[in-house]
Amino acid sequence: MLSTSVIPGQNLTQPEQVAALIDHTLLKPEATQHAIAQLCAEAREYHFAAVCINPCWVRFAKSALAGSNVRVCTVIGFPLGANEMRTKMAEAEYALSEGATELDMVQNIGALCSGDLRFVRDEIAALARTAHASVARLKVILETCLLTDAQKITASKIATEALADFVKTSTGFSSAGATVEDVRLMRQTAAPTVGVKASGGVRTLAAVRQMVAAGANRIGTSSGVTIMRELNSAALDEPALPTSGQAVY
């Protein structure tokens, strides 16, 4: 398993702290090449952790991000998680060959809810082995809005046992996104070496700070630029510290 740096209780006042958490995301089916190019340019400018894009854009994004430290993340079995395992494996293998360095897979939600936990574990484990063989990371999307708390705990434990690198809340395409409560529950359940990615509806700096305080150490959002501008604006609004001998009123 690739090690993950869990970041408990950061104040997140520095731009580099916030940017390092963000997977700059564009998964809309109507996204154009121009939009993907802009996403990559923004990721370069702000030094985001990764771009998260649909598989058809992996090669383009890899080229657009050449020479930067921004990782290329794509989705597998997205957004339902209901593909055959061999289909997910083929998706993953091709994405890795095109240059993806992170894979966000949707677990088989129906299998989990049916109690077929061995299948869920075997599928995640197979994808984790494939990712790690290419020195890539695997994140497992639980789609928490469709699960009971007991199922979220079970899913987080299974992902840990299967050697996933992260558990992730949501696709952003179902009935709800990330919540502080779900992030906290996932953080408490997954091993300390497993990251927690909060994704779906995280659109403000305040929301980022809430998710990190709950235990998230990666944020999936299409609002990365807005969040960074909000942070920079807040920094400009802060009063300057007094110089030596200057009175404070």
Question: What can you see in these coordinates?
Answer:
The protein is an alpha/beta fold. The chain has one domain: Aldolase class I (TIM Barrel, Alpha-Beta Barrel). 44% of the residues lie in helices and 15% in strands. The chain contains ten helices and eight strands. It has helices at 15-19, 33-46, 58-64, 85-98, 109-114, 117-133, 149-161, 180-189, 205-214, 224-237, and strands at 22-26, 50-53, 71-76, 102-106, 137-141, 166-168, 195-199, 218-221. Strands 1-2-3-4-5-6-7-8 form an eight-stranded parallel beta barrel, surrounded by seven helices. Helix 7 links the parallel strand 5 and strand 6. Helix 4 packs parallel to helix 6 (117-133) and helix 6 crosses helix 7 (149-161). Residues 1-6 and 240-249 have low confidence and may be disordered.
For the record, the CATH class is Alpha Beta
Major β-sheet profile: 8 strands, parallel, barrel
Q: What fraction of the residues are assigned to beta strands by DSSP?
A: 5-15%
Number of helices: 10
